[in-house]
Specification:
The complex is a heterodimer of chains A (283) and B (325). By secondary structure, chain A is mostly helical. Chain A has one domain. Chain A has a two-stranded antiparallel ribbon. In chain A, strand 1 and strand 2 form a beta hairpin. The longest helix of chain A has 27 residues. Chain B is mostly helical and 325 residues long. In chain B, helix 2 packs parallel to helix 7, helix 2 packs across helix 8 and helix 2 crosses helix 12. Chain B is globular and about 50 Å long. The termini of chain B are far apart. Classes of the chains: A mainly alpha (283), B mainly alpha (325).
Amino acid sequence: MLQVLIQGLLLSGLYSLIAVGFTLIFSVGRVLNLAYGAYLMMGAYCYFYVTQTLGIPKPIGFVLAASVGAMAGVLKYRFLVKPLKGDHVAVEISTLILAVVIQAGIVFIFNDSAKVLHPIVPGVIWVGGAAVTYNMVAATLASWAILVLLYLFVRRTHTGRAMQAVSMDAKGAALSGIDPDKVNMITWVISGILGAAAGVFFASYTQVNPSMWVAPLIIAVAVVIVGGIGSILGTLVVAHIIGFMEVISTTFIAAELRGVFTMLLIIVVLVMMPKGLFGREEL
Amino acid sequence: MAADIKTRHVLLWAIFIGGMCLLPFVTTPGTLRTIIFANYLAIFAMSWDFLTGRTGYVSFGHPFLIGIGAYASAILSYRYGVPVAISIPLAVIITMIGGTLFFLPALRIRGSYFALVTLAFMELMYQLVQVIRPDITGGTRGMSGIQTITSGAFNNFYLSFALMAVIAVILWTLTRTRLGTALSAIGMNEESVRGSGLDTTKLKLFAFMVSACVAGIGGAFYVHYLGSIAPRNLFDINFLFTIIVAALIGGASTVVGPMAGAFFLTFLLEYLRPWLPGSERYFVYGAIALVLYMYQPKGLYQIIVDSLGIGKSRNKQEAAGDSAA
């Protein structure tokens, strides 16, 4: 029982971090960025290359990974999302194509094989008969810290409030002197950084390979859909629902079925209550 | 419901079909195999487009439908020894039942959310196939040694081409009827279609059923062409990507577009093979698709129509831009 609790908390922490960047774009830009998983992949590969191939210290690798994510966010917003002018379906299709292009690009540079990332923080602690890696604990703690910082940023700073305003009503925000274009750009940058950071942790939890972007994307989609809201707190709650559901189904039913319940949750929630568990007007 | 078909159209179709029938006599078996793949991809792309291009319900889960058709026929013939002549029609019916499942979310949601539900359907199926009764589905490794219908590039070319041509002509005829017009109208504005006294639920169901039927036929025949099946080849985002890109690059909401797109992309991939042997090819492929999509979301079809000045140049500025480029 204790084991399930700990594993659930750790996994949920990681999932919150994965989902929050996706939620941010969804709530401010009102578009689903299906290339979000590619941020994670790019972050992970950048970190892998810098720390394990070049042998540069980990913190620098982390910063570089984050800056790759930020740059990807800027480019994506500038050349893809903005020209499509908020045509949701077109953005989804083009970001999906982009994700596959990035995947192919990664194969081109790093080849097809999976790579193992050394743990960011090595070491294992035994709790209640289960091994808990320090790496996972670090990932969870980092994700909590990042989420708290993000929450404070969105609530307390001027820029964060502008983001909230644009997410509520872009026209209204523009009328009160906020430049929605600039706010959108900032949101894409933050989302890229969060994605890349989540990617490094996610990769240290699993491994680095060219199709690693699909699983986190689906987790992020599930969180956003089931939550139905674009708020950071909602993301946290739903990430825990999904994280615990996976751990419980792995422990008590079968490890192969862990993803099945997430999919079923997406389908059931969307069909039964299209506005999500916590409600929000449809796009 | 008389279809709006002119002699010119019949003539063009006849030239196209006649020309394709002569192809095996002038090309090598290697090229023929590429064309066979293009034919199947064209079927999948047309199926996707009949749903998405017309009604505007973006399906990210078409591999789900194709996979049901493929798996149903493969399991029936491989595990239970059902003759192919019976297993394929049964597989198509099963796919259409699966299509009904697909249809349920469309009653309540549309746009981004619908696309995501269909994506979830695909991933769900991918995981279920491996877990539930692996003794029947073959689990992660799938099945091989499935009975093939004919052998040799020559026969398979005619089989796949006949399938594609029949499906294309039927779908094309459908779009020329009032029914097709109503379906396209749903894509433009569903509320006003309902306001004009048409039952949109029935119309949508029809589009879903046609799309599922075509996907089932394509999937079932495809698996009996390949002779093997594996979950990761079917229920995969890359496969979905290939289908969508073929339809979009050729021109969504036309019948000729997805067909042309499928051929264009299959040959592009084939010609890239000497330089880029692995999945890096998708980099070039995807990049071309992305640039084309950003430049003209309606695809090559629209670009050609604009530059030829057919269709009374609906958008004069774009036509001017095209001829300048």
